[in-house]
Amino acid sequence: MLQNGNPCIPTIMSPLTPIQMGNEITFQNDLLPLKLYTAIYNSRYKRVVTDTKTFVKEVHRYVFQTSRYGNFAEQINSYILRSHIDTNTSQLVIDKAAIFNVDQAFDNATQIAIATQFVTDPNTVSDSLIQQFSHPYDRLVDGILKIRSTNSPNQSLEPAVTNEFNFIKNTNTGNIIGVLVRCPEPFNDPKIPSAVLQTTLSLNVTIGNLNIPGFTVFFSKDNSKAFITNDDASLNMPVNGNYAFTFTYKQFDGNQYSTVGSAITVVINR
Asked: Per-residue pLDDT averaged across 73-90, rounded?
């Protein structure tokens, strides 16, 4: 190259104009709940900017099922099974709700003590328990506490059909050791980072004018269930009080996870 001279020849050129890109989503009809659909991705493009002909080519497709809920508020409020409007106050009155008491005798040595250790540090329990139940939620709910159906003590809880709140009571002590929140569908994207996930569900308990702080949440792998208990690992939540559960929906906006819409708060008076 040194013998043949400078290989770089200066030229004066106009900047290249990039081909524009855009997204267009088309639905032939409104989507129905709990139905299977096929999403088809077509690439519509021109080979050159000045081309008058548009080419269309399918590049991807996949099958998906729609949600049973129209929006996040509908999902959270699905715990309301029957309600009516008070004609005098024009306020919603809940007649029946998916709020349950799950009474179970927990062994202090083999369950409560280990659950206390787990809440303090989920990785300090036995290796065999970690190997059998790799996910922390499963390790606590199924491996340690073994929460069972009230109707069938030898079986796990029946699958949730709505959003529901289960107050887990230790009949040996009378303590509420935690609240198990369950729903047929995830509250948030299962792929959401754990640090962000912890901001999507919180609990505030008040007794009269007294605020009871300090609760921790263990989410299931698919984010459709959550076990809430004292963050001091006491497993002793107020038997009576005003329980306010706040749910938040997060979505990735291309840079970070941001809150979508308004937070939904469910208040349960016990």
From this structure: 96
pLDDT tens per residue across span 135-191: 999 999 999 999 988 777 788 899 999 999 999 999 999 999 999 999 999 999 999
Say if CB 178 and CB 228 are below 8 A apart. Answer: yes
Instruction: From residue 183, give the alpha-carbon distance in Å to each of 70, 226, 254.
Output: 15, 9, 28
- Number of CB atoms found within 10 A of residue 23's CB: 5
Phi and psi torsions of 28, nearest 5°: -70, -35
Closest CA to 110 of 141, 134, 144: 144
Question: What is the b/e burial string over 113-151, where b = at least 16 CB atoms within 10 angstroms of the residue's CB?
Answer: ebbbebbeeeeebeeeebeebebbbbbbbebbbebeeee
Q: Measuring CA to CA, which residue among 200, 232, 186 is closest to residue 213?
A: 232
Angstrom distance (rounded) from CA 73 to CA 53:
45
Q: Contact 47/73 with Cβ under 8 angstroms?
A: no
**Would the pLDDT of 19 be above 70?**
no
Q: What DSSP assignment string belongs to 39-108?
A: EEEEEEE-SSTT----EEEEEEEEEEE--S-SSHHHHHGGGEEEEEE-TTT--EEEEEESEEEEEE---I
Among left, alpha and beta (phi > 0; psi -120 to 50; other), residue 254 is: left
